[in-house]
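Next comes the chain:
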Amino acid sequence: MRDSTLEGVSNINNPFGQVLVALVTPFTADGEVDWPAVEKHIDDCITAGADGIVVTGTTGETSTLTDPEKLRLVEVGKSVAAGRAKIITGGGSNETAHAIQLYKASEKAGADGVMIVTPYYNKPTQAGVLTHFRMIADATDLPVILYDIPGRTGIPIKYETLLRAAKHPNIVAVKDAKGDFAEVSRVLNQTDLLYFSGDDANVLPHLAIGASGLIGVTANIAAAPYRTIVDAVNAGDLHTATEAHQMLEPLVRAVMTHVPGTVAAKYILHGLGRISSPRVRLPLVGPEDSEAALIEDELSHVGSIPGLDLGRFRPDRNAAAGGALPKVHGTTR
C-alpha cells in the first residue's frame, strides 16, 4: 500500500525523478541522428528543470531508430546528464526476445531505468501481456515503468493485470496514457506502483489524485512550468499549480492536437532555433501547410512562459516538409 505519510506527490522510493521529458531525437536534414543537437537538447531540458530524460520512446521515434542508435542515445544521455538527471530507455518491441535483448544492452549502456510499452500489433491476451512484462523485468536489475497507451498499441493493460504485474520487484511504475482516472486511483490504492502522467493535458489532474510525476512531450519545449506544477503540488499549493497548468494549455494544444507530438515539437523547436532541423523519419512527415498554420495559430495564444520566448519563433515549413529515409534502417534482427 502507498505510504500516506509522504507529502504531496514526492516519493522517496521514486528512482526516476518527477519531471521527465519524452525526448525528441534531433535529426539532420537527411534523417541521420544529429548527435551534437542531441547533447545540446538534453542539456537544455535538464537546465530547464527536468530530472529525468526518456530517450528512444514514442516521441523519440523509437520505431525508426536502429538498436545501435538507441544504445548510443542512452550513452550520450548519461554523459550529458552527468548525474543531474536519470536516463530511462523507452520503446521496447512487440517481440519479447528482442525486447529482452535490447533492455539488457541498455542496462550495460548505463540506463537508470526502462519503460516497456504494451506489445503492439500482435494484440496478445492479458496473460501474454503479463508474461511479456515479467520476462523483461526478470532480465534486468533496472526499475521498470509499464507504458499503458491503448490508442497506439490496440490493447490496454487491464486493472487485474496491473495488480499482478505490481507484485514483480522490478516493476515499480506505470506511464498512463489511457486516461481512466478512476482506475488510476484504484491501482494507487491497492499497489505501491508509481504513476506518471503520459498525457500532457492531464498532468495536473494525474498529480492531484496521487501520481508521482509526468513523462511529457511539451516538456521538450518548456520544462520549467512542469517543474513549477510538480513543486507546487508537492508543497500543497494548488493555486500555483493551476496557474502553471493554465499557462501551458495553448502550448499543449499546439503540440498535441493537429499532428503527432513528435512532429509538432520538432517544428516548434526548430522554429525557436533550438534544433538544427525539424526532420522526422518516414512514415512520419512534417506538417502540411494547413496543419502548420493551425500549430502557429495555437502558439499565438501562448502567453508568458518561463524559459520560452516565442518572439524568436521563425517557422520554416519548407524545412519541415516530407520525411526522411535514413541510410541505415531496421530495428529488429
